[in-house]
Amino acid sequence: MKLARPRAVIFDWDNTLVDSWAVIHHALSTTFEALGEEPWTLAETRQRVRKSARDSFPELFGPRAGEATEVFYRTYEADHLAQLNPLPGAEAMLQGLAELPDLKLAVVSNKKGTLLRKEALHLGWERHFVSLVGANDAEQDKPAPEVVDFALAGSGIAAGPGVWFVGDTDIDLVCAENSGCTAILLRPDAPAAMEFDGTALDFHVPDCAGFSELVIQSLK
Question: What is the CATH number of the domain that holds 134?
Answer without folding.
Answer: 3.40.50.1000
